[in-house]
Task: structure prediction
Amino acid sequence: MKIRVELIALPQAGRRHSCVELADGATPEDLLSVLDLPDDEPYMTLINGLSVAPERRATTRLAEGDRVIVFPPLKGG
Amino acid sequence: MSWTGKILRVDLNAGTCVSEPLRSDWAALYLGQRGLATKYICEEVDPAVDPLDPANKLIFATGPLTGTMSATGGRYSVVTKGALTGAIACSNSGGKFGAAFKRAGWDMIIVEGRAKAPVYLLIEDGDAALLPANDLWGTSVWDCEAAIRARHQDPQLKIASIGRAGECGVRYACVINDHDRAAGRSGVGAVMGAKRLKAIAVRGTQGVAVHDPKAFMAAIKAARAKLDPNPNRKRLGDVGTHAMLDVINAFGGLPTRNNRDVVFEGVHKINAAAVKVPRSGDGRPNLVATKACFACTIACGRVATIDPDHFTVAGGTDYKHPSGGLEFESAYALGSMVGVDDLDAVTYANFVCNEQGMDTISFGATLSAAMELYETGAIGDDETGGVALTFGSAEALAAMVQLTAKGEGFGVDLGLGAKRLCEKYGHPEFFMGVKGQEFAGYDGRAMPGMALAYATSNRGACHLRASPYASDFATSDLEGKAAIVAATQDERAATHDSAGICMFTAGALDLDDIAGQLEAACGGGWTGDRLRETGERIWNIERLFNLGAGFTAADDTLPDRILKEPANAGSAKGKTAELGRLLPEYYALRGWDESGVPTAETLNRLGIE
Result:
């Protein structure tokens, strides 16, 4: 299945908007693993505009055409 | 130890500057900066006083790490009863001014009374004097700084001053130091203006001694080892706080058009990517450089330019030079909140706020409220002088920022702040804020923890008093939110508002890291746990001050728009903010009764008399 991915406030600007092909039944955790992001901070994810808590990423199923936004844990200022 | 042990007390009534010893017993309980200065305010100022009355006091305060080699150790705070809110106010700033006055040999400056005619305070190490400022009154921050340096033939003078906004009583006037660093919120500059104190200029040539130099070097080296590789440090240097704009917009929590919307369709024109795109006219981008405050290893500061062909700079040469650029809150308040997606106009408004000493958040949010009043017909062209205050109008933004900063025309009304403005024109429901202070760039419907943080902030709506970000971005479940808000309120009060270092170390340094630096700097047994307790003590004396000023639990609330009108898009679509469960839970965690009053047991535990 194809997942639309948008990275925000991350250095991978060239892949800001992209499509990722994943196996059916894949999870947000699977998606993060193929995005090749540095593993030095916990990322936040929105699926179709709704947040998915980090502890639910391994059990939440993605679906064809889902739009996933990934961003780092910004703290305001 | 890193305390100089000296306070400079400036009596504007008598025209005197007197040195007095620091209350080290209070420093042991309240640390420095926000905590220690608030203790002095609580002891010396009647909380019921009018903020603009001479009996109110204005304190410039450093922390124990200010002026040291600690990474980001250049912070100072301005503490007073706020002109915007009538609540305790503490506004924190960077730049180089704070370190300079610590290195001149002073921990704090307490300003009291009111001068008969405008004055400025000149501090050269141990010498301090009040000098006439009649010729400086009416100048901008930028011209004032240049004039004082020229007069004393000292380009190294570090200066904190007010612009015309502070002189003419704009309720959210701020104190600006080093050209464009702001002690921004709650109207501390209006208090300074009411005292007729135009500026404080400092030449500090002394160092800051520490309690245990060897341990201090080890502690700051250990902190750097954590801070330097931290991805958030690099990101803040690269894109500044501006990166938050895209995040909060995607989340559906970016206040837009006076919080009627939570997603701004024009965000891509004013975001962190847009400022890096070369313009077609002169080939330069908006963002031309970054800069750092004293001892800072992060460098989140932005330096920007305006397109020389843009309508805003046609008549003013000052605005054609590079100056302080957009960070997130300014981009929100001068952009989405007023619906403006013209990057040059937003940058121009930001420049003018710096030039004349005005809080960008409160100005933008107040203009936004005025735009809603205009749209509904509560005000019209008779009030605005013929300027159409329509959402999205770059022309209205550019015109009104000048009028407000100079106290002219409809700018006088805009200078009241959104709460007073909306009450004056019969629509108090259009005020988007808490305790008289306008919201920052997060909508409480999308962020339940932030909603509680806004409602309970002691200085009125504020995004810096607590840190519910990670929790709010992960889940809307209310479980645990009250505890996160209370705990981070305490942590921030003690560490990044009272120690002398910047809050942007927070992603890398924990309380024990900061306590280790403090212990080496000033001794006395500082630990992470003691910092937490110190923060709780600070929070409680601020609360007591506000109760004395007349605030009650009824003020720990949010506008009806946030509590009753569901968000129309984003992660919180269809939802409102909920305080009904969180507030009682928060009061209980704090050890306060059902009316939000600290119990005797809580005060005894914290050693508050």
Summary: Chain A touches chain B at residues 6, 8-9, 11, 13, 38, 40-42, 44, 46, 49-51, 53-54, 69, 71-77 (CB under 8 Å). DSSP finds one helix and five strands in chain A. Chain A has a mean pLDDT of 88.
